[in-house]
UniProtKB/TrEMBL annotation:
InterPro entries: Aldolase_TIM, DUS-like_FMN-bd, DUS_fam, tRNA_hU_synthase_CS. Catalyzes the synthesis of 5,6-dihydrouridine (D), a modified base found in the D-loop of most tRNAs, via the reduction of the C5-C6 double bond in target uridines. It is an enzyme of class 1 (oxidoreductase). Keywords: Flavoprotein, FMN, NADP, Oxidoreductase, tRNA processing. One of its GO terms (molecular function) is oxidoreductase activity. Residues 6-292 form the DUS-like FMN-binding domain. This is tRNA-dihydrouridine synthase.
């Protein structure tokens, strides 16, 4: 089974991808790291700062798969060509982002609202772009039943791998991933299928593998931020030690401080990681407010030192 890490804006950036590989790489390392979405610029002039995230020199190690958030097929095909020039092979299309600012523009999961537009988009991309293209999708906008018609469109395209996050757009991240709907549609998928959603423990990962042995991959998102050794444990390895977590988090913090040029920006990025990770520290509730209030580097460092006096769960 291939394990992948999910694209997560504000979390799985190049600094995280490098730190994760250094501290929690093989065995059980992710086969691929999916990068958070980028939008192709309408004027077709690449934005240096955004592209720096995907600079191959800054992304050594396991393959990184860039992801596009777009609604104009010709523009997406052009951007895929630009990514190929940088050396990327697979490019992923995002039909899953449920954020209101994205879906209001008809992008992300908003693409699932109008299937005639989705069809035109897919036709343009697959006729104008070369090389492997994968898709990450939700089941629909309001109801999982919508997926029957959506899958019908996907099945007509040479999608190299379809990652299904079995929630609908309206759900955002509420409720549970709909495993029953996933199981219902899986036999109708003509392409390799990757499952994504709500995997937070090695036992859940193994149970999913046993339930769906024919999957091409399993993608984990919030679970690997909460427990960066999740995949290592899934292949029989050790849980993350305190020393590893400290090294990993310090590397992230210093990496962000250097990249943003300001500790306060790094603090804000680190809080996003701690949002998921803090539950691993027994009795961490007493420090949650203090961490939330930290603005300056020194304030953050004081709380983190305190958190590391706690036992791991
Ligand atoms: C903060 C955050 C940012 C995300 N950014 C992206 C993104 O850039 N592209 C994408 O396809 N999905 C994005 N997602 C969705 C995740 O890739 C994944 O589908 C979702 O978290 C469910 O998987 P999980 O339960 O393993 O976390 C994001 C999710 C979160 C929580």
């Amino acid at each position: 089974m291939n394990y992948y890490t999910a694209p997560m804006e504000g979390l799985t950036d190049r600094i995280w991808r490098q730190a994760h590989q250094r501290w929690f790489g093989a065995p059980g390392a992710p086969a691929r790291y999916y990068a958070p979405f980028i939008s192709p610029p309408e004027n077709r002039v690449l934005i240096k700062k955004k592209m720096a995230e995907l600079d191959p020199a800054a992304n050594p190690g396991a393959p990184v798969i860039p992801q596009l958030l777009a609604k104009d097929g010709a523009l997406a095909a052009w951007m895929i060509g630009e990514l190929r020039k940088m050396g990327y092979t697979e490019v992923n299309l995002n039909f899953g982002c449920p954020s209101g600012t994205v879906t209001a523009k008809g992008k992300g999961a908003g693409m699932l609202r109008d299937l005639s537009k989705l069809e035109v988009f897919l036709d343009e991309v697959f006729s104008q772009a070369e090389g492997p293209i994968s898709v990450k999708t939700r089941l629909g906008v309001t109801s999982p039943e919508e997926f029957e018609a959506i899958l019908d469109l996907y099945d007509r395209c040479p999608i190299c791998e379809l990652t299904i996050h079995p929630r609908v757009m309206r759900q955002l991240y509420r409720g549970e991933a709909d495993r029953a709907a996933f199981a219902k549609y899986l036999p109708h998928c003509q392409m390799p299928v990757c499952y994504n959603g709500d995997i937070t423990t090695p036992a859940q990962l193994k149970a999913l593998e046993a339930e769906f042995p024919n999957l091409s991959g399993i993608m984990v998102g919030r679970g690997i931020i909460a427990d960066p050794a999740l995949l290592r444990q899934a292949v029989g390895g050790a849980p993350a030690s305190k020393e590893e977590l400290r090294g990993y988090l310090d590397e992230l913090y210093h990496g962000y401080t250097e990249a943003f040029g300001m500790a306060s920006c790094a603090v804000s990025r680190m809080k996003a990681h701690w949002h998921y990770l803090i539950q691993r520290f027994e009795g961490s509730e007493v420090f949650e407010k203090q961490l939330r209030k930290a603005r300056e580097g020194w304030e953050y460092e004081v709380v983190v030192n305190q958190l590391f006096t706690l036992p791991l769960l």
